[in-house]
Amino acid sequence: MVFHFLLILHSMFRWLVFGSLLSTSVLAWISLFNKNHFDNRHRQLVKSTQILVVLSVMIGISLYMANPLRAYFFRHLADGRQTGETTYFALFHSAVMLAVPIVTSVGVYQVKVAKPDNKKLKFMAVYFTIALILVLAFSPWPFMSVVHRPLVR
Question: How far are the Cα atoms of 34, 45, 81, 133 from residue 31, in angstroms, in the given order?
Fold first, then answer.
């Protein structure tokens, strides 16, 4: 019961994080190319995106701990009886998704300490785009060969 609730919640947060990272990245690149100033709108978007990323990872860690695939993977690690799906969720997805808040945290810090606006926008664009690429590359999608997950749960 808890596992399914966390799975649905995590799936909903995937879209919030994706949308937030996309809007943060796009706004940063547009502002950078148009030579706009870093303003309160940018600051609020960076903060809200960071909060959503951290909440999603916290839900993901809870889901990871309640996941029977993780228990199966580590119980049979020496046997070599892992499927692509168990390996994907037990290792790759979880490791990369733990890296996403680290990337965004470094980006938030760089944005905070940078002095000229163009430096703030550059750090915002680069770090949040990297986080977006990681989320897109390591989220389970229906077209993936290893795992087939629906777009919405």
Answer: 5, 13, 50, 20
Report d(CA 101, CA 106) in Å as an integer.
8
**15 pLDDT more than 90:** yes
What span, in angstroms and rounded, lies between the C-alpha atoms of 135 and 60?
A: 13
| pTM for the predicted model, two decimal places | 0.88
Contact 57, 102 (CB under 8 A): no
Q: Per residue in 40-85, pLDDT tens?
A: 999 999 999 999 999 999 999 998 888 877 777 777 776 656 677 7
Question: Which amino acid appears at position 79 of this protein?
Answer: D
